[in-house]
Amino acid sequence: MVKGQITQPQKILILAAIPHGLRLDKEIRKIESAIRRAIRRDMFEVDIRTAVLTQDIRRAIAEEKPQIVHFCGHGLEDGSLLLEDDGGIQKPVSPEGLAALFELHKDYVECVLLNACHSVKSAEAISKFINYAIGMNQQIQDESAIRFAQGFYDGLGYETSENQDVLERAFQEGFVAIKLENLSQAEIPVIKTRKNILSKPNKLNKPMDISLVVKFLAPCLPFLMNVGNKAVEGGARKIGEDVWRKATAVWSKLQPKVEAKPASLEAAQDVANNPEDEDSQAALRRQLTKILESDSQLKAEIAQVLSENDLTGTDGNNIEQNVSGTGNQTIGKMEGNAKAIGTVQGNVNM
User: Fold this and answer.
1) Element (H or E) spanning 92, and its range?
2) Which of 9, 137, 169, 198 has its CA 20 to 30 A from that of 263?
3) Quick check: is 235 in a domain?
4) Cα pseudo-dihedral 154, 155, 157, 163, rounded to 10
5) When comparing pLDDT for 124 and 37, which is higher?
6) Pairwise CA distance, residues 82 & 54, whole Å
7) Model pLDDT, residue 341
8) At what angle do helices 95-103 and 54-64 cross, to 10 degrees?
């Protein structure tokens, strides 16, 4: 996150689609004017690309490597941005497509500002990879969009205290800029920050209970480590679709790290061969602890996946799973006032 003063030159890339009826030329002039007036204007470099097509955006970001990307144009109600392809045909670009684009540039892009109607869904998708993403939660009038942009870049150039977050302060300046004009749309701009994800309370435990992660993965590893249509079908059928879906999401994040270290891979293979062996689980737990303690982002992402439905059953959440047949097992544990919901048949242990 950006605290205190910006100490390195910042490149701002403005990408403007020019559909009929929008005053994007005025918005661009206001942005440039705000930066020229800034006390610390020497810290900013502005590059402007107009009438951008879908492929222009991809190329421009890769070529310029900006810290701030500002898009102005049309947004659709599903969160897509409306651009033109190489043939001049209007084409919506989905939030998922934009998120995939910015994932490629997460090492240097610090903030994405989507000054387009209904763009909050795209901002939320982008914030999985970029620290700050700003979008609009409904239709926004041209004048409000321009005032917000002007206030944002005014704020970006102001002196701030050491403890202030520069970009969140700039967002607030944009908010106030709309309010001061007595415009009714100040609540429309929304900021999404990646720190909201990284700091989200971890329901597995505080800190993360690696042993519970291993217990969760253990019955799934025989299928996860033998990927194929039959393995996927068998895993989902035996373990349950919801548990299988979550296990595959967790494993997809862990797998590259596990396979990069022979000791980790061997421990995972041992659990896959004998999921109930406690010594094998303990060895895998030690390896995953090393991996996750050295990668806080990965740890937070896995905690996010697991916390979507609490595995421990605490805080009043329920565990729902259907298990049948001899030797099958439930996944997770229950504490406090948790309730088990589902059907149990055969010689099944809980």
Assistant:
1) strand 90-93
2) 198
3) yes
4) 170
5) 124
6) 9
7) 38
8) 20
Helix (H, G, I), strand (E, B), or coil: what is residue 46? Answer: strand
Is the domain of 102 the same as that of 18? Answer: yes
Query: In whole angstroms, how far apart are CA 280 and each of 104, 264, 283?
Result: 37, 11, 5
How far apart CA 61 and CA 68 sit, in angstroms, is: 10
273 phi/psi in degrees, rounded to 5: -75, -30
41 DSSP assignment: G
* Average pLDDT along the chain: 76
In a domain, 204, yes or no: no
Cα maximum dimension of the chain = 75
**φ, ψ for residue 239 (rounded to 5)?**
-95, -25
Q: What is the pLDDT of residues 16-72, one digit of tens each?
A: 886 554 556 777 777 777 677 665 667 788 888 887 888 899 999 999 999 999 998
Quote the radius of gyration of the chain (alpha carbons, Å).
Answer: 24
Closest to 9 (Cα-Cα) out of 47, 31, 49, 41: 41
Instruction: Output the six-digit token pair for 346.
Output: 């055969």
In what helix (H) or strand (E) does residue 222 lie, and over which residues does it extend?
Answer: helix 221-224
Which tokens sit at 301?
Answer: 């992402």
Residues in the chain: 350
The reply to whether 349 falls in a domain is no
Contact 339, 318 (CB under 8 A): yes
Residues 6+ apart with CB under 8 A from 227: none
CA distances from 344 to 76, 205, 347 (A): 47, 27, 9
